[in-house]
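the two lines:
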Amino acid sequence: MLGLFDPVARSFLLLLVTAVDRVLTPIQRRVGIDRMGYIFVLPNLLIFGIFVLFPMLLNFYYAMTGGTKLFPADRPFVGLGNFENLFDCEDFLSPNSCQEDLFWRGIFNTIQYVILQVSGIVLFSLATALVLNRRIVARGFFRSVFFYPVLLSPVVVALIWKWVLQHEGVLNAIVEIFGGESRRWLLDTNWAMFWVVFVSVWALMGFYTLILLAGLQSIPPELYEASSIDGANTWQDFRFVTLPLLMPTMFVVLVLSLIRAVQMFDHIFVLTGGGPGTRTQLMVQYIYTTGFSNQIQLFGLSAAASMVLGISLLILTLLQLRVGNQSSLA
Amino acid sequence: MRKVLAYLVILVLLASALPAMAQDMTELRIRWYNDGNEGEVLRDLLDRFEADNPDISVEIDTVPYSAILENLPLDLAAGEGPDMARVTDLGGLAQYYLDMTPYLSDPAYWEDNFGPFLNWKRLGDDDSSIPGFMTQLTITGPFINRTLFEQAGIDVPSDMSDSVTWEEWAAASIAVAETLEIPYPMAMDRSGHRFAGPAISMGAQYFDDMGHPTVMDEGFRNMAELFVNWHLDGTMHPEMWPLSEGYAGANEEFANAELVFYMSGSWQVGQFSEQIGDAFDWQTVPNPCGPGGCTGMPGGAALVGIGATEHPEEVTRVMEYLASQEVLGEFAARTLFIPAHAGLSASGVDFDTDLQLAKDSLGVFVGQVGTLEQTAFDLQAYAYNRNVFNATRDRLTQAMVGELTLDEAIERIQDDVDTALAEVSG
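prediction for all of em together
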């Protein structure tokens, strides 16, 4: 291994520093030392601009145009026409009264899905992390087991569960063994959403468990010793030591899982295709179908819907940050 | 030593000649999907072409069918994509096709043999371009599991009458399924194209007097009502339409003898020959009848040249080879596809199978060509037909699960069609 004082390594480093210096010194002379920070972040900003900012601006432009042509220059400007179509409703609580009824079905399904899935993720991840943080038998093994589904492709996860839940599947076989009646789990409009949430919680909770586990392990053990001297029981330990100190980590979990839930597509698309009917069709699937899978591809409407989704997500995240800041100040 | 040097010189000369040889070679790409063994057969035919034409190499990029429907149009709109592609959205992609007429050695051959089907690949007033040829003509129609009818002791309705109604087929299929405890009496591919044949048989017109697509008539409603109710009462496979996105088929259920009556089409014959063979007696029966006739839908896939290709002459050479009567005849015989070629239709194709069930099925489908209604041909030739088909598929599914009433679903189909067409014309 080359040490820092290895002559070869030293020569190489010297060469590198000289080369960088040759490039940056004239730039510094030109822009001044105060502005050098911008020069250092420029490469990253360029990448961000090309791959994030530019597509966002392009999406904004598409949302303001109509027609079916792909190239922006060929598309007629329609202003807010696409947004007007999306929000053209007699009664916002009744999707059937809206011109773009599928968009509103997507919104209501997404709201329901996000509430159920994020609650499930936070609850089960926390419970699992608490258990895995204790000194239990085969703790390392169980930590791997809970993380394993995260490593699987969403398509594989959905196909496995489709196989379990189908009419001739494993779940019905188990139900029949215990004397129950088999049913079409995914065809039942009431059960479909439950299973979609269940599968995604099962698949994703390992990742959030890991984050919470790291948070739990960063709590100083001295605090638990002090609380035990004060005579606190397990619940009081959790309520007055663990929970407050874990709150920042839980907040990260909440924000990340919420963003992922609003953007959910893959698991559901393979598991139910958005069905039965449109019962599990979320906003992202509406955007995809409108923009890409129809013969006449309505890119403008699709871009407008994706902007609504993006703005909703932004508002939700800002609200969360605000609430998080307030609670940490309190 | 001199020998070694001589070898080295030869090696260096060969190495320096390779890039020049590579430059002379034109590589063409075909985007292709498979229903059965046709990709294999095409590769074999192209190997022979390449042997006779060392300046052209043809790569087949095999993709899922959904990629042909969803990704290919975007690639083409962006000016990218392959040199040739196998497509089923024949009119919808017409704006991107290569008109091979200036490069063809004998355009009359194409007009004479593919004439009736060239219009399916043309847009608007165009009545002369030659963009490609049909790799197969398809006819939609039902398959039945005759063995199940025999085991249940129930007569096959088409044995007793030339014009069996949809209701009669449903009653017979339910009786077979109940007797033998078969899970699914009937199933239909999840496709608006498959639904269109039965709807036309029930009297659906699909176009108004101005030639605008419409589903607002009694015939369409009658078939839609039957179809939705059959999903509610378990006559139709209950999961296939409500619990899928896009196209779905019941091939596996039929091949596993879990299905009595399967509304699909002629392209399944090759697959069933391989999957089922003679494990049970599967059979194609004539399309069921209604007040509007006894029609299925024509259709098919075409291999077309893409206008953005940098090698139109080479593409045309490949197409001329594949579309020649001898080669296309071999392709049809080995894939069990019905050829859409006048010469082959006249001479007949000796299908490459010993399975009498497959030969009989193909015979029934070929016989169905004469029973197809003009509306079915018009709808197939309509450039934006998939717009109508997809709206039909998705909205009827909503009616099946109770999100919309049947009348709301039909109104929504019409709205979806009108809205999308307004964007095209706007």
